[in-house]
Known about the structure:
Four copies of one chain form a homotetramer. Helices cover 27% and strands 32% of the residues of chain A. The first copy, chain A, is α/β, with parallel strands linked by helices. In chain A, the strands form three sheets. The first copy, chain A, has a six-stranded mixed beta sheet with strand order 4-1-5-6-7-8, sandwiched between helices. The A-B interface holds A 33-34, 36-41, 110, 117-119, 121-130, 132-134, 141-146, 159-161 and B 33-34, 36-41, 110, 117-119, 121-130, 132-134, 141-146, 159-161.
Amino acid sequence: MPIRIFVTGGTFDKEYNELTGSLFFKDTHLPEMLRLGRCRLDVSIGTLMMLDSLEMTDADRALIVERCRVEAETRILITHGTDTMVETARVLSEAFPASGHKTIVLTGAMVPYAFGSSDGLFNLGSALSFVQVLPPGVYIAMNGKYFPSGRVRKNRETGVFEEF
Amino acid sequence: MPIRIFVTGGTFDKEYNELTGSLFFKDTHLPEMLRLGRCRLDVSIGTLMMLDSLEMTDADRALIVERCRVEAETRILITHGTDTMVETARVLSEAFPASGHKTIVLTGAMVPYAFGSSDGLFNLGSALSFVQVLPPGVYIAMNGKYFPSGRVRKNRETGVFEEF
Amino acid sequence: MPIRIFVTGGTFDKEYNELTGSLFFKDTHLPEMLRLGRCRLDVSIGTLMMLDSLEMTDADRALIVERCRVEAETRILITHGTDTMVETARVLSEAFPASGHKTIVLTGAMVPYAFGSSDGLFNLGSALSFVQVLPPGVYIAMNGKYFPSGRVRKNRETGVFEEF
Amino acid sequence: MPIRIFVTGGTFDKEYNELTGSLFFKDTHLPEMLRLGRCRLDVSIGTLMMLDSLEMTDADRALIVERCRVEAETRILITHGTDTMVETARVLSEAFPASGHKTIVLTGAMVPYAFGSSDGLFNLGSALSFVQVLPPGVYIAMNGKYFPSGRVRKNRETGVFEEF
Lengths: 164, 164, 164, 164
């Protein structure tokens, strides 16, 4: 089953600039991570934007919705910063209800993949698995769990996603 | 939903002995890997054995079946060497048919977790996700995919699991 | 030969705060790095401060000079941020001339050790070696080279230390 | 000052074959390690052989001596398996005495670089530093120390190099 992956940035893909000592975006690490995971799924990757999710605008979210709409794949994975992942999932769930035919899973990371001990590889394996088997609708995959959109928030004290 | 994890060894958990230059087993890395993945699932881990799967006997497999039977959890993940994972899945599927009430997922790794660039973290995220949502039966989760027992083999030339 | 190591902070020891997405200091990684390097030298480690070297004041530098003076060891290694390492070396060289009896080597890193692919481990091995064999005086050890204080600058375009 | 590096194999450069689960040699990691260490020394690298040092013959050692003799550089670093490093150093010291004009340093690793937490990067930084400043003669650089040839052995219980 073909899976579409959309990259939007987030901690997942942040790099360390050794001249300035700050974090920045360059290219996505998704292809390298899929290679590392020996992934043999039929995936195609598209980078929509490279943003810290705190900087994501309504226009950015409209673009994500539009791109999910026009692609033929019914299974879509979106990598996204964790800070506003819940908000983007909410916007997507209006366009792609459980009664539709698309399964969309958002995931991200608390630690940049480039920093070695990342949760990104674990989350990528998790999100790619959920997107294959969950029924239509919009979900967040974090902390080994999946959460239907509208029933999840990020706890900012602990960095953990929780159902409510 | 509580998930039981059984550790049986395999490449997943191999270490490098720097005095002899050979690979060996010490303790499982599962707790560390779950911590790294920021996993918040309700899991309990039990080490059944620490074997290269080429050395696994019928008695070992009988023990795995027995332990899957006696535990209360209906969702069970087994880490296993890839060489005979298909064989153990076959034995398990006789005891736990699709008409039963237990979902059992086997996974493993091609590269030891201790060697840095492992597929183990990706596979663990994947297998933990599949075990939550797949219907009762026995499955192998490798290469980002899941395979119902009895319809999968390991291609020894490529190291990849394939449906047949 | 006993070697004294003074930790002052710098990129070497920066950590990633996964809740805020920013870099900060916690504890030094020196003991772990020495263990990783299978180092068997007779070293004692003292943390003087944990600073980004851009924030280091004259008072901080006076403290470093004082601590180098009072310790009995004649071989001293100082880990330091690269941005003002040259400045601290200059201050130290006034107190510890080539005609004295103390060999002091400053080193640092361009990438935090905690971010996996650091130059810190290489630089630590290098600086610990130079400090054992160089004659009295103050030196910077970076990029595999050693530079006597007063004849070195950091090229801010390339991040490389150069003799002049 | 130009430095010649000769690669002879050893744990330093071992890889993990994920199809067979065994260790083997492919290409040397030296260029990547020098890049990681931000090394800016004037080095040229030549691979003489790729051997587990237990398999190194008298002919192999004669070749190493010969190559050290014909190269113009007076500073030479040799990467070597730790098991017979002491033996090769002894052979070299007959050809390159302290009264000569060549400084030769042998180093190696207890853990393969490819396995993540290697001592190789630390040892490489150390050996490259010693080779620049030690007087003519043959040395082993391990565990952060340097040992003149003929006064060092590897303790096989602890994996540590010791003076005697």
